[in-house]
Structure formats: structure tokens, C-alpha cells
Amino acid sequence: MVTTSTLDNARATGYTPGNSAIPDTVPSSVTMAETPAAVPPKPAIAILRGVSKVYSNGTIALANVSLGIRQGDFLFITGPSGSGKSTLLKLIYGAEQANEGDVIVHGQDLTQVRGDSLSRLRRQIGVVFQDYKLIPRRTVQENVAFVLWAQGMSRKEIHRRLLPALKMVGLQHKADCFPDELSGGEQQRVSIARAIVGTPPLLLADEPTGNLDPDNSWQVIQILKRLNKLGVTVIVTTHDENLIRKANHSVVQLNNGKLRRPLHS
Ligand code: ADP
């Protein structure tokens, strides 16, 4: 749905997210994040059905998890350290494979997708990490542009995308700085710009505020909320209960790899 604030955000930044490739229907067995009764349900962007993940050392990270995320959702995944939050995101962006169950993202079954198809699918998913993962000897704009350059995009196209992404995170004036010239909060905002410069319809953030103070944490969440208003589906892992309460979005909780029914804020 395009709202006034969607348009205002887009006008202010020039940032326009992409659309999900292939919508999928949601099986009734899968728990969905909450949609108000009067609003017709949107297509699913990610579905996990009966998913289990056991690492090679025998650790059971996820056990029979079923979860659906619709286009336009903003979902928090919470739970104590070691409960499986990162693993769940890794399965969605294809960094790990499930041992059992289905993981369907943008309409594609991740247990079946390999090679170029997996690379194409990953371009539709932005990922933000707790530790930023910026390249130290590259400037802000080089860090943000790198992924587009690696995809073979033209200089003109990269240039066209760079400024809206930096504006979205409020760092256009820091384009020529190096990461060690920025605060932790600014570095995390650069990593968000890098994650969204390819205009993915789905953004995953794994403990994005884990290294930040409450003010910077809230700034990061506000940027994610703005992106969500523009239509980006956002999934955030965190164990920060205050942040979850303040942000006021749907929440699911993991405990020892098991998903509890959603707690709606
Ligand atoms: P969280 O993000 O909630 O802290 P993780 O998904 O990182 O949880 O981890 C879930 C469980 O899987 C933990 O017990 C962790 O030690 C284990 N784990 C995570 N990654 C690996 C790995 N690559 N190899 C073996 N065990 C792992």
C-alpha cells in the first residue's frame, strides 16, 4: 500500500525499493506475523515450514520451526543468545541449509536453488550484521558501492544509486570518510546503506543494535522503520526488550531452537 508517508520518504531520499519477485501463498499450518482483520493479507515473501537445522557438531540450532513473513511485514525475532536467531536468518539468505523442512524465499525453495539462481535470489535480500563488516581501507561510498561494482553494474548506475542510499541513512556528508573516522552508530548506518543500495525488497538485520548505545540503537530502528514504510520487508533479531516495546511491531520468540507463538506488541 502506498501511503502519504511512503511518498514523503521516497521524495526526501530518492530511495525506491524493488519489488518481490514471485509472491507465494501461505499454507494454513504456518504461523504468520499479525495482519489486522480488515486488511487483505499480502503475499508471503518468506516461508519456513517444519524447518530443523543441526550443525555438523551435533548442535540442534532450530527444531521444527514454521513461520511466514508477508510482504511489507516488520518482524522482530527475539530470544536468548544461542536460541537460533542468527541461524534462522542464515537459512533465509541461504548461508546455511536446513536439514529438514522447506525454506521458500521470493517463491523459490532454497533447498533446491544453487549457483547463479542463488546469487540472483541473494541480490533481492539485504543483510545487516552486528559488527558492520565494512572494508577498513575503503571510504563510505566505496564500501556502499562495492557490492554493485562486484555485480558488474555501470559507474553511471552505481552513481545514480549511491546518493539515495546514503541519504536514507543520513550520511551523504560522510561519503569520503573512512570507517575508522565514524562512530559505531554511523558505521552501522553505512552497513544499512550497503545492504539497501541494490534496492532489495527484503532486509534482514542480525542484532544490528548489539554494539550500540540506546540512542544509536533507536536511530537504526527508525531507519529500518522508514524503509519498511517504503515497502521493504524487514526482519530484525534482537534481545533488546526495550527496543522491541518502543518499536511496536510483531515479535516471535525463539527458545532452544523452538519458535513460540508470536507475541504481538
Ligand atoms: P543466536 O543468534 O540466537 O545467538 P545462533 O543461531 O547463533 O543463536 O546459534 C544457535 C546454536 O547453534 C547455538 O548453540 C550455537 O552455538 C550453535 N551454532 C551456531 N553456529 C554454529 C556452527 N557454525 N557450528 C556449530 N554450532 C553452531
What distinguishing features does this structure have?
33% helix; Rossmann fold; single chain; 8 helices; alpha/beta; binds adenosine-5'-diphosphate
Average pLDDT confidence is: 89
Question: What spatial form do the alpha-carbon principal axes imply?
Answer: globular
pLDDT under 50 segments (min length 5)? 1-7, 21-26
Fraction of residues in helix: 25-40%
- How do the strands of the widest beta sheet line up side by side? 6-7-8-3-9-10
Report the strand count. 10
Percentage beta strand: 15-25%
Query: Which small-molecule species are bound to the chains here?
Result: adenosine-5'-diphosphate
CATH superfamily of the domain at 4-21 and 71-84 and 115-264: P-loop containing nucleotide triphosphate hydrolases
How would you describe the overall organization of this protein?
This protein has a domain at 4-21 and 71-84 and 115-264: Rossmann fold. The chain is an alpha/beta fold and 265 residues long. The radius of gyration is 18 Å and the shape is globular. It has helices at residues 4-13, 85-92, 115-122, 140-150, 155-168, 184-196, 214-229, 241-247; strands at residues 44-54, 60-70, 74-78, 100-105, 108-109, 125-129, 202-206, 233-237, 250-255, 258-264. The longest helix has 16 residues, at 214-229. Adenosine-5'-diphosphate binds at residues 55, 57, 59, 61, 79, 81-87.
